[in-house]
Amino acid sequence: MLRPGTLSLADLHAFWRRARPVELDPAAHPGISAAADTVAQIVAEGRRVYGISTGFGSLARESIPREQVAELQRRLVRSHQAGVGDPLPERVVRLILLLKLGSLARGHSGVRLETVDRLLALLNADALPVIPAQGSVGASGDLAPLAALAAPLMGEGELLLRGRRLPAFEALAELGLEPLELAAKEGLALLNGSQVSCALALDGLFRGLDVFAAAIVGGAMSTDAALGSDTPFDARIHAIRGQPGQIAVAGWLRELLAGSAIRGSHLECDRVQDPYSLRCQPQVMGAAWDLLGQAAAMLSREANAVSDNPLVFPDSGEILSGGNFHAEPVAMAADIIAIALAETVSLAERRIALLTDASFSNLPPFLVAEPGLNSGFMIAQVTAAALASEVKLRAHPASIDSLPTSANQEDHVSMATHGARRLGPLSQDAGRVLAVELLSAAQGLDLRAPLTTSPRLDEAHALIRKQVPMLREDRPLTPDIEAVWALVEGGRFFELLWQSETADPFVAR
């Protein structure tokens, strides 16, 4: 049941992980209708209100006659379909539809219940607008991509109907639906808003959580395989610093390593301290965890927000122009997600390097028998280094950029949409770095036999070995990396760490 304004991060995560039917709470209907009635009254009175009886952006001074109000909305949607590039992924489009529905159903946008119901019908029929990925600067709303969402309501543009890309009018006909004629304010309400950038950022956050969970599990496995100490994870160390993320990460590492026979075998060894990539995991990963939590809170609020313009307040009959469409919170959230993942990957790549370095790990060079004849994980570490470098490049902040648009009416923009969109390829690269670490750590644990790791890490090891056998002599490693990356992307390490496929780990901790 969609209750506008109450979507939790767990709700959003579950919907992102697996599409499911959506039902709008009937309690939202009166508010939607009251806002639509307010707009209709303004049109009937001939009042001059931005976007209803005027042009848009820098053309706001141009008045529109009452008889052309509907035509104004239709032309607005057509003119704003200027996006380019590959279509957005299906699960991102589903999130966009859900967020747009939730925003319009708050009752401050002035759209009719009929229009909200049509969006709901498309979502539940798995009829997804084909939305080009590029063309929004994340201010005045995600205009070009949201125009591609709005056009199919009028029978224009394209829909992906259960996997088939069709002209919208054909897809609507298959569903037994007629094109809508948009009423006053409706085109503007559909186009204005931060739903595209927010959905992309949520996609980046959720993919980032899969990567982060894999990094915690991989970091624990690497620590055990490298004969690292668990003393740096002692709760007393972290309590006296007081950083919540650091405390949480140290706790997860302690839980994962508890009961390891490998750890018990070297309690009296002469190694005084481990390198930072092992010893400082709570400090580095904890800081990243706090950033991800901050981004999650910002995006959770934005997912429930009314972010179009102007806004309708039926209780007073007013329509107020503001700037809720400006996606600066989303832009900054996307940037801190990117930074958190870049640091996560930076640490993971260093742990791979330690494992493959026989002078530190006391394992065979490059984690393979007969080194020299075999190169083992030598080039897998090079691949991880290359990907880690790409992640760092993509982590450069997008929110610090701005290019004025619309004849300088929109003179500061957020760049949220591409800032959020870049999280997709960034998380893919990050996930593959973690795949290399998980493979390396699993190999290191195999080489410690007959000593065994902890019960929790044995679960992770078995998950990997179910897909990829131990490396006994050289073979192409690309299929192995891709197989373990699929486990990361599929949330298997998320589930292992937080014991649920779709949990809200920020609440769970």
TrEMBL record:
Q: In which pathway does it act?
A: Amino-acid degradation; L-histidine degradation into L-glutamate; N-formimidoyl-L-glutamate from L-histidine: step 1/3
The identity of this protein, by name, is Histidine ammonia-lyase
Name the gene that codes for it: hutH
Which spans are transmembrane here? none
The uppermost taxa in this organism's lineage are: Bacteria, Pseudomonadati, Pseudomonadota, Alphaproteobacteria, Rhodospirillales
Entry-linked HAMAP family: His_ammonia_lyase (MF_00229)
Q: What is its main location?
A: cytoplasm
Cross-link 5-imidazolinone (Ala-Gly) maps to which residues of the chain?
A139-G141
Q: Which UniProt keywords apply?
A: Cytoplasm, Histidine metabolism, Lyase
Enumerate the InterPro entries for this protein: Aromatic_Lyase (IPR001106), Fumarase/histidase_N (IPR024083), HutH (IPR005921), L-Aspartase-like (IPR008948), Phe/His_NH3-lyase_AS (IPR022313)
Q: Which organism is it from?
A: Aquibaculum arenosum
